[in-house]
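dumping the sequnces here before i forget
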Amino acid sequence: MTLGTSTRLGLFLLLAPILVWLIALLVLPHADMFLVSMREKVAPRTYEFSLANYAEFFTEPLYWRTFARTAIMSIAATAMTLLIAFPVSYYIAKMLRGRLKSFLFLLCLVPFWVSELVRTFGWMILLRESGVFSNVFQWVGLADAPVEMLYNDATIMVGLVYTSMLFMVVPLVTTLDSLDDAQVEAGYDLGGNAFTVLREIIVPHAMPGIVSGCIVVFMLTLGNYLTPVLLGGKDSLWFTAQIYTQFITRFNWELGAAFGFLLLALSSLIVWAGLKVTRQTLTETMG
Amino acid sequence: MIPSIPQPKAFRFLYGSYVVLFFIYLVMPLTVVAVFAFNDSMFPSLPWGGFTWDWFFNDTEPRLGLFHDSRLLESIWTSFVIACWVTVLSVTVGTTNAFLFERRDFPFKNVLYMLMLLPLVVPGVILGISILVFSSTIANWLENSFGLDLMFLRPSTFLVILGQFSFIATIATLVIAARLRKFDTALEEAAQSLGASRLTAVWTVTIPYLKPAIIGAAIVSFLMSFENFNTTLMLVGSDQPLTIAMYGRLREGSTPQLNALSMLLMAVSGTLALMSVFVQRDRN
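..and the predicted 3d for all of it:
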């Protein structure tokens, strides 16, 4: 066997697993889902090509409102996560040194290795009518009857921001860590104040981290199911819950597939726009 | 805003307090979950009823301890089996992918790399439903054309494994490829010039070098599979993995038994997480 054929064979053997994986579990399923979303049941076991499912989405206010609401709340949650995480990441990356620094960074990571279910359960124990906060408020005299803090949008927000924190803190700390202190000092030497240094030096330097953090957080929030459903209850109106209802409860796969595609389109569009605006590529951001 | 630049004391104090508050926010939900696992009461809420181990070890209803609840133990086992399969598949494919992307050049390599990253961008619920739709299409076609009724192509543990593998493989690939990138190929060449065949060289030199990354990828894959909810929810069959069983109980109304279970999960994932951090750290 010559070297040429043996490397050919090697390449083929290395290509086989990834092609099977990506074609059988990613490309074909999505293509099939797309086909299912483009058909309509006209009689038992008889389907016709139609755009009825997409038409239903746009004509039924519940559906498109849920969609818009999910998108807007995801953007808001992403912005809030960034605002809360940035000062903390900066503190860990630039203000601390040595052991305390690595300990606090690790402390940021560890909670997120715990299942999202457990984290959400924690918030339920804290916020429900018989929960810890409600009891504390009554005890200090801020309230005279049990307070229900679950099942509203603010609570969904708290849960979403909490769940997303890791994916913002890690990229931010990593990029801020690589910022040379001398650059910040130079900014001050040239007459900058805290605000101008932040705007002209720190934020531009942290941009790659901000972008990849925001993209990941947005995607995870948009596709989240547990947090909105458990913390928001029946009225959470999250789009993934709508997909679940169509697929599992109503058994209307055609409509569910159309919804899935719309969510995928929105998610891809925002990721793409985010990358375009900041001139980055998916490969740099993820890999 | 770095230590070498003087800042007003009040600012430093406020900034420090903010960071402290952040960490309280971070640990608070997990702390209450852990504390109420020991509450001597039927509900995981105040008032505090005293300390008890019942929610772990008691063997009678209504206070069935976690270790005597056979349904719960079964779902832990289901999750464990699924996670093992997903780990083996993901690490294997991740390793071959790492060699493919780091060592080979072929047409459309960048396209394939982008495609490989896509599972991270697709929401888990959608990965789940697309696999559900596609496997049903195959199952229906087999049934109509050949009269074959393959149950594993309907929602089942098999589909859960495939669904989780479909995105965890990407993560395993990234972890392993990152380490392979740092490998000095001269070492492999040295082994070959000393008479080893190419495969022997890879097996005895490169793979041992990759070991920390492979172990790290295995731990991460196992945890991600064990804790996965979104993709699993769409594909689950009659055997409920732990997250699905827990979700069901959480909606029915919870007893401190659920806290005990959560605590066990925290202990296990915390340990595994620290292990993976230390395994990965060794490479520096």
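The radius of gyration of chain A is 24 Å.
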